[in-house]
Specification:
By secondary structure, the chain is an alpha+beta fold. It is about 30% helix and about 10% strand.
Amino acid sequence: MGKNKTHGNKGFTIAKRAGVIALGIIGILITAPYSPNKDVHMKGGSVGITGRWGIASFCIIIILIAVLYKKPKRQQNISLYETTICPECGKVYIVGSGPTDDICTKCTVKLEPLEGFYDRHPEQKEVEEILPKKIEDIE
């Protein structure tokens, strides 16, 4: 049988957003701050116009958060997702094998992506390799 995979919290989904927006609208409609003649009671007491506007403001803020909130993106370590190189010692870390803090284990220098490294640091380029024209020329 297959493994039972548990999916974690997927964040602030559309259904959750819709629920929060609906509750905010219901809160505004119940308190009715726009109608000074409406009588609103909470826990046995009457709520004045200032209290009703306060509750409605809270509901509006909640609705705005539900509409405008975007999950912040975590900074990803580049060494986990692309090949990196140390600019000091030249040690290359293959995808997924690099240190998690993007620092070279030998000389404690921040790693750089390997792609385009020699264009950015031409002094690090050792020898230009001359490729043979035919496969038979390889010794």
